[in-house]
């Protein structure tokens, strides 16, 4: 039949055709699309005893519409990434019930009992003691097991080939790692930030450092990444009295530099901290870099003795982790900058009653993280700067 764009009314028969739902008279569907890229529907039985989510990639960027075409093949990358993460951290992603490559649609666990981390933080909640540690742990589990430490060389080459995702990598290379430092129609910012936006475009030293991070993003095939690990890609809550952290939306997944995933998470934590500072609701925001790094490093070191290639010795591990840290600091800087003067902004800042002062502070912090990433060697150094 070929690819078709699913509308709310199509979902009951679609789910029946795909073998996920028998009684199409007892199904209520609503669209809950929220991200920049795709459509999401929730289907639920009348008594709420059954529910699931359907996510479909459109042939364009959802928030831009058909004027920004984008292959729906990106859903294949997402399905592949989920399959890989499920092997090593099944408790940290939603259960995937099926993937339909023809319609680029994933059927998955309904997580609407959980909350998007960004939404909670914007409402003034704290992170809690587990969230960032679990995120760090997930990055370690995914990255170690898909690196040359966790996989035989030939399997790694096959993984790299299977995970090539040129269109989505190009989005990141453009909207994160170059456009904010150029004159580009995608860029927009608050009028109060005109001076800084112009300064960033004219700053040759800043541009060279971003070029370095961009080239590392393009060439450093360290491990399979989530690829877009911001606080809007994390759901949290409690199930049966236990804290739950679920990472979703790995459509930007590819084999790249591990620091990119950590850096994105850090940037969003730092921006959320600026929001909390502006509103006087600062809770445990200041500690999230340290908690996520500790979670990452502890898990990566725990896995190290299982490495498949012992030519990589313990001294090399220290050097490797240092490089991941430095990359993460730099990518955190680029993520902050692009979220304020680039294409896709953050509700953390845009919904503030007076967004300019916090945005300005964050932008200046982002620049420092990019320029001084080699010397900012601990979470305390970054803390002092923030
Ligand atoms: C055109 S897409 C802009 C952003 O949305 C996605 O969530 C990624 O963060 C991407 O950079
Ligand atoms: Mg997303």
TrEMBL record:
Residues 29-287 form the Aminoglycoside phosphotransferase domain. Its EC number is 2.7.1.100. One of its GO terms (molecular function) is S-methyl-5-thioribose kinase activity. Gene3D superfamilies: 3.90.1200.10, Phosphorylase Kinase, domain 1. Coiled coil: none annotated. Keywords: ATP-binding, Kinase, Nucleotide-binding, Transferase. Belongs to the methylthioribose kinase family. NCBIfam families: MTRK. Homodimer. PANTHER family: METHYLTHIORIBOSE KINASE. This is S-methyl-5-thioribose kinase. The lineage of its organism: Bacteria, Bacillati, Actinomycetota, Actinomycetes, Kitasatosporales.
């Amino acid at each position: 039949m070929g690819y078709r764009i699913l509308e709310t009314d199509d979902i009951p028969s679609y789910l029946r055709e795909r073998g996920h739902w028998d009684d199409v008279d007892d199904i209520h569907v609503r669209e809950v699309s929220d991200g920049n890229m795709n459509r999401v529907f929730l289907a639920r039985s009348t008594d709420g005893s059954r529910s699931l989510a359907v996510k479909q990639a459109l042939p364009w960027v959802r928030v831009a519409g058909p004027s920004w075409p984008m292959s729906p093949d990106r859903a294949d990358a997402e399905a592949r990434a989920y399959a890989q993460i499920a092997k090593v951290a099944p408790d940290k992603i939603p259960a995937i019930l099926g993937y339909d490559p023809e319609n680029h649609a994933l059927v998955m666990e309904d997580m609407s009992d959980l909350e998007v981390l960004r939404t909670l933080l914007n409402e003034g909640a704290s992170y809690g003691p587990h969230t960032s540690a679990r995120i760090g742990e997930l990055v370690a589990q995914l990255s170690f097991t898909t690196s040359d430490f966790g996989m035989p060389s030939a399997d790694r080459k096959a993984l790299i080939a299977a995970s090539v995702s040129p269109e989505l990598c190009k989005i990141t290379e453009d909207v994160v790692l170059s456009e904010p430092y150029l004159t580009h129609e995608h860029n927009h910012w608050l009028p109060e930030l005109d001076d800084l936006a112009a300064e960033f475009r004219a700053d040759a030293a800043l541009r060279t450092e971003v070029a370095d991070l961009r080239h590392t993003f393009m060439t450093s095939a360290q491990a399979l990444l989530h690829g877009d690990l911001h606080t809007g890609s994390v759901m949290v809550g409690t199930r049966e009295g236990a804290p739950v952290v679920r990472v979703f939306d790995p459509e930007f997944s590819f084999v790249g530099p591990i620091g990119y995933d950590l850096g994105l998470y850090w940037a969003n934590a730092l921006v959320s901290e600026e929001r909390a500072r502006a509103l006087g609701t600062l809770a445990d925001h200041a500690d999230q870099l340290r908690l996520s790094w500790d979670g990452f490093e502890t898990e990566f070191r725990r896995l190290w003795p299982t490495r498949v290639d012992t030519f990589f010795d313990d001294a090399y591990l220290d050097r490797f982790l240092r490089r991941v840290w430095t990359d993460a600091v730099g990518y955190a800087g680029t993520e902050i900058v692009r979220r304020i003067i680039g294409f896709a902004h953050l509700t953390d800042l845009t919904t503030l009653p007076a967004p300019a002062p916090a945005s300005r502070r964050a932008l200046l912090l982002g620049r420092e993280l990019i320029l001084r990433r080699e010397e900012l060697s601990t979470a305390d150094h970054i803390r002092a700067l923030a």
